[in-house]
């Protein structure tokens, strides 16, 4: 039986998919590659059926990324699991290294690493994230912001027995939601090096993460309605809950400001207005205080550093 299953959801990206699959092959020696075709309308079926070492599953109707990943989770067989989007890349040997770390720490639920920013051809374009690699009990940090790049994570299948599958309703942030649920119960390990290349979104790339207003709207609702009601948060008391809410709002507002300033710098007025509108609706007081103290000219200069 393969040591790790890497699940690759895909839809209408057969020209990118082969590159992702090849990177998965180089990332681990004992690997099960599960490609879940989310009802593609291009040549994805023909491309995948010609790959003897890939387990290809095609769904009849579109499920979205979280639904496709869940199909892959149910179909996979290995002790360890990783996700890889069809437009991202894994670096050679990195999954084997991460599996070894988990094998040495049986109490840990998952391990993550760094992701290099990639251009639209997934070539390293300078920079990586996160800057710091918290590990151990990272639950409260994840409640404030998601510093864990999805394509860098390896987690134990056994975790799913306690926390469940991905939540289909958390589309776009389903990975963050899963990390929080795992970190609520298990220690998290970190490999302080780049293990993947993340294709950075642009307004033209048709990636969900390219629409900051939609991402933040969903995250705001999930934080308020789901994460703040988790058992560990409830047990921590009202004061801790309020501090987490304030820290989350502060971090989210700062991110919206950076993203809005980047759109302004690119003269993308439409998306700039979308982001400003979302910030004023979700975090009116925090947004007003930050923009008043910084001023948009300063924010634009800061965004050049933050967004490269």
Secondary structure blueprint with pairings:
Blueprint: E1 4-10, H1 14-27, E2 31-37, H2 44-49, E3 54-58, H3 64-75, E4 80-83, E5 89-90, H4 94-104, E6 110-118, E7 124-129, H5 139-142, E8 154-156, H6 157-163, H7 174-183, E9 188-199, H8 212-225, H9 231-236, H10 238-265, H11 269-282, H12 284-294, H13 296-306
Helix pairs in contact: 8-10, 8-11, 10-11, 10-12, 10-13, 11-12
What tags apply to this protein structure?
308 residues, alpha/beta, Spore Coat Polysaccharide Biosynthesis Protein SpsA, Chain A, 2 domains, nine-stranded mixed β-sheet, 13 helices, 9 strands, globular
How would you describe this protein?
This protein is of the alpha/beta class and 308 residues long. The protein folds into two domains: 4-199, Spore Coat Polysaccharide Biosynthesis Protein SpsA, Chain A (Alpha-Beta Complex); 211-306, no CATH class. It is built from 13 helices and nine strands. Strands 1, 2, 3, 4, 5, 6, 7, 8 and 9 form a nine-stranded mixed beta sheet that branches. Helix 11 packs across helix 12. The longest helix has 28 residues, at 238-265. The chain is globular. Mean pLDDT is 91; it is low at 302-308.
CATH first level of the largest domain: Alpha Beta
Q: Calculate the mean pLDDT score and round it.
A: 91
Topology as a string of helices (H) and strands (E): EHEHEHEEHEEHEHHEHHHHHH
How many individual β-strands?
9
- The geometry reads as globular
Fraction in beta strands: 15-25%
Helix coverage percent of residues? 40-55%
The span between the termini is 43 Å
């Amino acid at each position: 039986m393969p040591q790790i299953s890497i699940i690759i959801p895909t839809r209408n990206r057969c020209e990118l998919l082969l590159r992702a699959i090849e990177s998965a092959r180089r990332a681990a020696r004992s690997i099960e590659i599960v490609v879940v075709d989310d009802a593609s309308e291009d040549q994805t079926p023909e491309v995948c059926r010609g790959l003897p070492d890939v387990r290809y599953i095609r769904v009849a109707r579109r499920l979205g990324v979280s639904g496709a990943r869940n199909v892959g989770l149910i179909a996979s067989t290995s002790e360890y699991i990783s996700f890889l989007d069809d437009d991202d890349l894994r670096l050679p040997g990195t999954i084997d290294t991460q599996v070894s770390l988990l094998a040495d720490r049986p109490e840990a639920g998952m391990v993550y690493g760094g992701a290099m920013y990639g251009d639209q051809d997934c070539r390293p374009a300078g920079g990586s994230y996160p800057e710091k690699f918290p590990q151990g009990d990272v639950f409260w940090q994840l409640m404030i912001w998601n510093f864990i790049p999805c394509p860098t994570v390896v987690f134990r299948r056994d975790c799913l027995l306690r926390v469940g599958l991905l939540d289909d309703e958390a589309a776009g942030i389903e990975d963050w939601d899963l990390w929080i649920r795992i970190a609520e119960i298990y220690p998290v390990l970190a490999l302080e090096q780049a293990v993947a290349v993340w294709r950075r979104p642009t307004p033209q790339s048709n990636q969900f993460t390219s629409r900051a207003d939609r991402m933040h709207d969903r995250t705001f609702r999930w934080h308020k309605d789901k994460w703040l009601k988790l058992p560990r948060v409830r047990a921590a008391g009202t004061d801790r809950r309020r501090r987490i809410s304030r820290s989350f709002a502060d971090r989210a507002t700062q991110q919206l400001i950076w993203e809005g300033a980047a759109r302004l710098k690119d003269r993308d007025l439409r998306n700039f207005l979308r982001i400003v509108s979302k910030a004023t609706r979700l975090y009116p007081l925090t947004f007003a205080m930050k923009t008043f103290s910084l001023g948009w000219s300063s924010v634009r200069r800061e965004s050049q550093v933050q967004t490269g």
